[in-house]
Amino acid sequence: MEIALAGKPLKVKLQWMVVVRDGVLDLGGELRRVAVFDPEPEPPAIGGLALRILRELRARPMYPRELARDLGVGEQAVYYHIRRLERLGLIRGVGTVRVRGASARVYGASYDGYAQLFSSAPSRAAQPRQVPHRLLAFFDEFVRGGVLRASFVVGSPEPHGPFRAAARDGHYAVQLALVLGSLASPPASFAVKLDVDVRAERSYDENMIVVGGPGTNLIASELNPHLPVRFDERNYWRGLSDGEGREFDQPTDALIAKIPSPFSPGRFAVLVAGVRHVGTKAAVLALSTDHERLLSGYSGERTFAVVVRGYDLDGDGKVDSVEPLRYYSRT
Cis omega before residue 41 (within 30°)? Predict the structure, then answer.
């Protein structure tokens, strides 16, 4: 921005920092997840070895003996701080490994950092803009350096695939893209692809946000076998079913799922798809307007899914309310 000082223009670069409880720091577009501690009853003093452990686990997940070896300290000291940091919620178990015939728990950092409030009284300064921190956590692997590192994949509007179906829900991706625009800038390359183009170009080596069901989106059909809740492969429009015998077959039923990409190691795919196109609309509506409630069950799992159902409460023929029906997750 430019301001005037003593009649002369002076250019000033402003960098805003926004803190949201258990949310993020927004540093000039660089988003960081943080834990915010209340001033009462006692501030959690963190330093020395505990801080070194946090830095190591922020770099990569590790098990306690590995930490002790890399930090050159005793295992008991590491175990003491691991237990304390886990109680504070700053680290969490992310899996197990076999070490010398025994099972060792692997830990990872829950946040990029932490902050301590000096007072519980709110500042009189202007309130910061609200950052959708649950949505940010859900799309954590998709945003790097304030830039969206993913492509939206929508079904072709032309008849295609084994069912010769034309997608009617690709335009719903625009709504979700507008919301994600509050988290990140668009990538340098074009961020939207048709399913047929992904197949033709073999451009699977990236994070994907796939919008639309497997009947009209070929990439969704390739993801389907890897989902915790699957569309019926005999007829994708019949509905969804899980491994426990539950079925979801209403036109407004839909699935929102995040899984490790089956196409490329280290990448992720998010699927937003309905049994019918109106279900896709319901899922996009839920993820874009009610993500805090919808993703309340998400805590960083590598595989996460929620089945939702849309409702027309005011009777105008359009979905205006969405309720989660069932959650599924795997670490």
Answer: yes
Which sequence spans correspond to the domains of the chain? Answer: 1-129, 133-330
How do 192-194 and 151-154 pair as beta strands? parallel
Class of the 133-330 domain? alpha beta
Q: Look at the domain 1-129 and name its fold.
A: Arc Repressor Mutant, subunit A (1.10.10)
Residue 41 pLDDT grade (very low, low, confident, very high; cuts 50, 70, 90): low
- Quick: pLDDT tens for 230-268: 999 999 999 999 989 899 999 999 999 999 999 999 999
Is the pTM for the entire model greater than 0.70? no
Q: Establish how many alpha carbons lie within 13 A of residue 176's alpha carbon, considering only the half-sphere containing its beta carbon.
A: 33
Calculate the CA 138 to chain-centre distance.
1
